[in-house]
Amino acid sequence: MENYIIKSLGFNRNVRILFAETTGIARAVCRQGQVDGAALRKALATTVTAAGLLCGTLKDRQRLTLKVGTSRPGCRIFAEVDADGNVRGYLSDEWRSVPAEEAAGAPLQRLIGDRGQLQVIRDLGMYRGFSGITDMPYGNIVDDLAHYFRQSEQTTTRFVVHVALAEGGEVAACRGAMAQLLPGADHALLGEIEQVLCDPRMADPGNPVTAWPKLLPGDAAVLGMAPLRASCGCSREMFLPMLRSLSPADLREAVATNRSLEVVCHACGCRYSFSPDEMAAWVPER
User: Fold this and answer.
1) Residue 212: phi, psi to the nearest 5?
2) Do the Cβ atoms of 188 and 209 come closer than 8 Å?
3) Which end of the chain has less Cβ packing within 10 Å, N or C?
4) What CATH class does 236-280 carry?
5) Helices 23-32 + 38-54 axis angle, to 10
6) Residue pLDDT, tens place only, 100-118
7) What's the CATH architecture for 4-230?
8) Alpha carbon separation from 47 to 41, 159, 240 (Å, rounded)
9) Which residue spans of the chain are classified as CATH 3.90.1280.10?
């Protein structure tokens, strides 16, 4: 498996610990979205890795969306994941107006700014859902997620994400870990948990994520490993309602000039072309 999540229990089964290898996913979303700038790639990679870790908290047909809002008007980072391990992430178009030097080298805290907001949306299926939103006092996404869980879900959680970029700015390695106290767990365990998450071997790109559970105390139990994958889920059929909603005049013009219409998926960059013959069937009779 190129990308995967490892689920485990540790500290006398009082803590849920999740480990994720997401290098392939981070590369894919940065390439598909044509993300310019090393700093923006790192921010997007961090967000999709956090979403990949949270996949381990989902079941059945549940879905989860992360929305990172920044102090810059309209500049947002999105990541989505479902219980089957399908992950996608993208940036809002407004990031294209950010100066190239900032997109390339600004610290994450500066990209987020002092008015960042983090929103978590859980789709629980059967028309049930939950949405929570908090401020981002840390401006680094991972500690802000821990802040969100403490404020909105009253759950003590810790995250760590390591993103390494190659000389050209492409994602060379991306992985992370999440630890969450289970109900009834002693908060005194936090010191031991943070010691594990701060182990320098986790930051070493040469140390595989499959070796990370060995950093846990001897009573830890690995519950299983499941694949993660970059998957947008878009299709030609998704865009049909949008095209059919074009005005009759626009459709007639495209048909009369024998012009195909192309739609580009905002999330993954896939292109879908619709021929004049297809559009002719959508033109209402006069």
Assistant:
1) -65, -35
2) no
3) C
4) alpha beta
5) 130
6) 898 888 999 999 999 999 9
7) 3-Layer(bab) Sandwich (3.55)
8) 10, 11, 30
9) 236-280
> H-type helices in 170-215, by residue range?
190-197
Write the CA distances from 202 to 116, 117, 183, 256, integer angstroms: 28, 28, 27, 60
Instruction: Say which range, 23-37, 64-78, 209-223, has the weakest mean pLDDT.
Output: 23-37
| Best CA proximity match to 55, nearest among 214, 267, 235, 229 | 229
| Separation between Cα atoms, residue 91 and residue 43, nearest integer Å | 10
Picking from 98, 91, 133, 94, the residue whose alpha carbon sits closest to that of residue 116 is: 133
What pTM was computed for the model? Answer: 0.86
CA dist., res. 33 & res. 45, Å (int):
12
Helix then strand then coil, in percent of the chain rounded to 5, is 35, 30, 35
Distances 232 to 22, 119, 188, 253, 255 between C-alpha atoms, Å:
15, 20, 40, 32, 30
